[in-house]
Amino acid sequence: MSLAISPLAPATFPLLPPLAGVRFASTSAGIRYRGRTDVLLVVLDPSTTVAGVLTTSKTRSAPVEWCVAGVRGGSARALVVNAGNANAFTGRRGEESVQRTAAAAAALLGCAPSEVFVSSTGTIGEFLPDHKITDALPAAVDALSGEDWLAAARAIMTTDTFPKGATRQAQIGGVTVTINGIAKGSGMIAPDMATMLAYVFTDAAIPAEALQRMLSDGVQTTFNAITVDGDTSTSDTLLLFATGQAGNPRDADLAEFETALHEVLKDLALQVVRDGEGASKFIAITVTGAESHRAARAIGLTIANSPLVKTAIAGEDANWGRIVAAVGRAGEKADRDWLSIRIGGVPVAAHGLAVPDYDETPVVAHMKGQNIVIEVDVGIASGRFTVWTCDLTHGYIDINGSYRT
Amino acid sequence: MSLAISPLAPATFPLLPPLAGVRFASTSAGIRYRGRTDVLLVVLDPSTTVAGVLTTSKTRSAPVEWCVAGVRGGSARALVVNAGNANAFTGRRGEESVQRTAAAAAALLGCAPSEVFVSSTGTIGEFLPDHKITDALPAAVDALSGEDWLAAARAIMTTDTFPKGATRQAQIGGVTVTINGIAKGSGMIAPDMATMLAYVFTDAAIPAEALQRMLSDGVQTTFNAITVDGDTSTSDTLLLFATGQAGNPRDADLAEFETALHEVLKDLALQVVRDGEGASKFIAITVTGAESHRAARAIGLTIANSPLVKTAIAGEDANWGRIVAAVGRAGEKADRDWLSIRIGGVPVAAHGLAVPDYDETPVVAHMKGQNIVIEVDVGIASGRFTVWTCDLTHGYIDINGSYRT
Predict the structure, then answer these.
(1) Nearest residue in A to B62, CA atom
(2) What is the pTM (predicted TM-score) of this model?
(3) Hey, which of A35, A85, A371, B224 has its CA 20 to 30 A from A101?
(4) pLDDT digits (tens, 9 = 90+) for B114-169
(5) Quick one: which of B197, B396, B122, B135 has its CA closest to A308?
(6) What SS3 string covers A233-282?
(7) Does the active-site annotation cover A234?
(8) Strand, helix or coil for residue B6
(9) CB of A360 within 8 Å of any CB in chain B?
(10) Is B231 an 8 Å CB contact of chain A?
């Protein structure tokens, strides 16, 4: 199925600069797709550190389990990603596919297989023809370059309607370092077990432990603050590689880097929402006044995942009654009579009551726009969190009701 | 908006016999709808006992809070239900509307206001014009009769496309007793009760405590085992009234009654699913082999609420990969390599792998039918639970994207 580019897509793919210590190539292995690239090889200079956050699914794929072990090791030399087959629910044979892929790349690059990270995205339950990947690797090694990040982002797409990239710079101890990221995903889970994959690279020199702490923290308010349909996949993978080639002092303060990293993660995460299947509206939901930040997040995600809220927004209906209902069932502390709601900045409900005779004109105009802002104040404490999601439209049903047929 | 009758609707409304001690009338108060009844008054003979299960929402409506208090009292003389306005998120004024409604009915019937149960269903956040209800009550009292249960079921409908009723008989100590139930609900349906109203009446003589125990137990595998969209409402109400007019011995065994009660609850609950907004398929999901019954229920509900599973079924696609993903994210103990799935009785995945070369013909035929049967065996223990849901179609988007406009 060919899909039109999301109306919420950014105008252009950003210009990602070359990164010292990172070279890559994309190639066509014909795993599932024809006439496009479907394998990405990234080669990292020695001494590259790595951090990762991977799906907590109990049915996670063999590549995810491989990456979890690799992150524990803390160092990386390569990444191999294929699109079209998720190598999920493939048992022992799936594990062997990962091992063979890592071993082939390791042999070509002269590193340990445990330093090769492997991701697969696409159909579930089909054995991965890993020989197609390993056969393609030698030519990929010959074609390595640090230039074309757009091509790299394209090679990992499945039902994505646009490639996703982000870049930022920061200073560490007076040295400028760069962070580049690419991602794919069109839902927390895309049709037929595609997934959300994100790879972030920096030339900074940062020990694996510090890298992991910053990544784990950063994910909480970025990738763990988005939802398209509430479905978590078996393959979600976020990896952060630091090549150390920028030559920054290793004992310098990382605050500015951490801010830039957070911006890259948020940028990529919001692009995934903007490519949400069938999305016509981008929705930011900020919950304040909750018992804790955790409670605010739970309430925000309950609103964001409510099919009734999502369809109302698709219909450009400022139906705040459905938001009230979602707050009520979120399982967090709330009191009907302290709850207030703003839509597009306009108070529509306050302290448990509809705002009498509020001016509907700006609210109606806001609902017709592409960017919907919902603010919910629970009114009992100071917990605060923002989540991002998209609406639920006929397009979602079209895409997901007919993907395999 | 006028909706076509659900394709999953039963062929006919069942014949509910008159029940000693139960009289009712429906009337048109013009609260929101025109040209149809929207208020139901039920009058119960003295000595009627009552039990109830009500929404756990933190933003539950004033009528729900009133009923919770009434159930605690244990006795009932009347029920007043209106459709079109939920009297939810209406603060102190909402509470006063309930009090006035109960007081008016109590004055007409010569009972305590606390013995009058009140329910409202419809739009949230608008003040209830309760004078329209109280104005209509005297004529309703004059029109009381025990005959037309179909009319009673119709008066409480909102977006329902068909009226819902069920009846069973049982023996208590050699005396035949009857149980009649009516219900409404078609969206915002999820366990822990949603905008789902159900009233069950029996002529049996049963103390309130025993009634409550049987109702609370019965709900677990019936109303708390269904979901349409995972949205729980502010107004869910299930009440069970026992008039005691059948003259059964009060110390007799209630086992047969409890079985019949369970059947009525299940019958009504499944009718609510069959009227799920936009539903084209009725789906039964049985989870076995889970760590506990509770875990089996959690896994079953995660599958049932997955938009990806629901849209796949709408598209008649036996996409078991999405079921695997839902099991994986349910938060319950599971092991990819022990999981097995049957669709329409045909094993499609076993012990963590696709069943090689399974015959797709009967599975394709099954997916084209109206009743979809999914069996998931987690393979680790003996927890078991069945949940019921419906698919997610364009009809759901149509209904919920334009309900208020």
Answers:
(1) A336
(2) 0.83
(3) A35
(4) 999 999 998 888 899 999 999 999 999 999 999 999 999 999 998 889 999 999 99
(5) B396
(6) CCCCEEEEEECCCCCCCCCCCCHHHHHHHHHHHHHHHHHHHHCCCCCCCE
(7) no
(8) coil
(9) no
(10) yes
